[in-house]
Amino acid sequence: MKQSHAPGKRHTLLIPAALMLVIVLLPACAALDSDPDRGATTVKEDVFGDHFSTVEYLPSQNWKPSDSLWFYTVTQGSNMMPYDFFMALERPGTSELIRGNENMNNRYRYLPQKATSSNPDALPVGFVKDIYKDEEYIGITCAACHTGQINYKGKGIRIDGGPAGADMETFMADIVRAMKAALENGEARKRFVENVLARGKYKTEEEVEADLRKYTQRLTNYITINYSTTHYGFARLDAFGRIYNRVLEHTVNVQALRELLRDPNVMKKGVISEEELDAIFRDTENVRVLSGAQRDRIVENLVKALNEKKGRDALESLWKLRTKLFNMPNAPVSYPFLWDTPQHDYVQWNGLTENAGLKAIARNAGEAIGVFGTLDWTEREGFSLPAFITGQGLFSKHISYDSSVNVMNLRRIEARLLTLQSPLWPGNILPRIDEARLDKGRSLFNQHCVSCHANIKREDPDRRIVAHMSRATDVGTDAQMAENSVNYQGFSGIQRNMYVGAGGVGDILLSQRAPVSALLTKATIGVVANPEPDKWFLQRWGEWAYNLATGFRDNVIKPSIKHGDYDPDTTANPVASLKSYKARPLNGIWATAPYLHNGSVPTLYDLLLPKKRPGDPESGEYRPDEFVVGSREFDPVKVGFKSSGYEGFTFNTRGIWDDRTGGYTKGNSNAGHEYGARRLADESDGPADQKIKEQCEDDKVKDEDLDPSIKDKCLYPMSREDRFDLVEYMKTL
């Protein structure tokens, strides 16, 4: 009898072993595409006059072709719209496909790709087919925002992990225009339906039109929710503002919505009646967690009720509702460069995220939520390990954070980035480094820069990056991003009465309204803690256990306190430290223009100039207050992109006049970080005494009138030649 049962037992034991083997080998299978060109291709004519007939990669970045191609096409659970819709969408008024390389490059600056085995439809870098619950979607990967290109004398240089030049704001607006045209224009609709049906996933015209209406409404809502008076242009995005709003969209519950629609400060009298309220929330009154279909129906009913009024009161009420529920994403920042990211102790421009343990994967989960990860959150009862991990108890009623977010791939992406290195200046393509300037440049760097921007060994596999945090008020750069992360709040809704850890100062109990950064933290932990719902049982739980275990085991970063001069988190203000900005090592900085966290300075040379202030002499040399963004043509002297002489996006550092607020929009300032541009205290050997700092920085006192005991403790503005010496040295980092 014992012998007859042995084979069955062996087979039972082999199942989990085989499953773990599959999980371990999957990354290798996914990296089979090794096209020597890495899929890179060119366009016939660049709208801004750039010219590149070849595309090259830099061996110094330590990635093989298979690494780059895997990074470009690895899915993370992004479900913007049905895949076949994206393949068939046309630019409004034309029969040209939106997805075509010419259009994606010229209008939005997404990088063109040819067809390869991992990208058979020749989608641009960072666009991919994502499959969730057997449905195919167009998704966005990390590479869309974190792959750059520099053009110089007919050669393109792809920078893996570099900041993209993409304009996602215009791209999303054009997608909605194209979908509305497919709905409303007879000829466009006919072509769209025929092309979608020809691809074979949809069976009837009615199915196509139903989904077209659904996704047009969803993406229109996305545009409305994320409207900003500060326009982004190329090479930047308020990603966190949009991620925050995606979380708020899914945490809000029926109770909060109904109360807002009854509030006379939101909805003017007569705009929404009680009968209309009942109709808007029909069949959802007792639902705690709204499904996507229920949310769609509420929005559709609300818009229908307001459209029937067709008056100023209805429009104003809709705007007030949007303002109550969501926050304006008006703090665009440059896309961060990714080399050395897994080695950081804290990441994001303001050190928002600790990089230890599972928080690295949770950071990536937040990004996936922001680019249309499907959030199928539900309320459930009974035993749940994920609920226990998220602090909801082991057997109680809980929120199940099911989603399309591919946690396995997020962990793999983080592991792959461990091997990515910063790009070295390619002297075979760009002009060679002027060796005569390097000694002086190195000395200037050690005087003015190294106290915040430490030098590291870029190829050291054991390197660690300690982020140096500085108060936004001290560094003087545009404070909008830091202020938003501290000040923005939203309805906690379904997460109300949950607890969220706030660094080392304790837990935050989520009240009716709570910091959005805390709501995001809770949501991302929930998403990471939940197994992926569209996988079969053993794979789902096997991957879940494997991801959690390896996420902790493989992350070499451990919890630590922030380094620098910033306001620490306290029980009175548990997010105070977020009102600061991060300095990091500058290896590869030459390939990451434009500069400052908000992209408000076009070149490294310009960064070393002061911002013109009232009373400054007209004859001085200052940072440009207005320049053009969009070209990839590289300036190897000042180190940055061509910033004039073409019709790109005009970056006005003063902002744009906003009639609604009676002032200029925020987020574009090019002030601050004027080290080497104005007289400052010398802190190259450590922090200076506050009195010395104040005397050195007092513009009213001329150099010759400084107290003799102070003079040698100050650093003085660099000359033009000094600036070029320093720029030359920074090319070598």
Task: Offer a quick outline of the entry.
With 733 residues, this protein is an alpha+beta fold. 37% of the residues lie in helices and 12% in strands.
Task: Tell me what the structure shows.
It is a single chain. The radius of gyration is 27 Å and the shape is globular. With 733 residues, the protein is of the alpha+beta class. The protein starts with a helix and ends with a helix. α8 (239-251) packs across α13 and α16 packs across α24. It has a three-stranded mixed sheet with strand order 1-6-5, with no helix packed on it.
Number of strands: 27
- Number of helix segments? 24
Q: Let me know the largest β-sheet.
A: 3 strands, mixed
Inertia-based shape: globular
How does the helix and strand content classify structurally? alpha+beta
N→C terminal distance: 71 Å
The percent of residues in helical segments reads 25-40%
Low-confidence stretches: 1-15, 22-30
Residue-averaged pLDDT: 91
Strand order of the largest sheet: 1-6-5
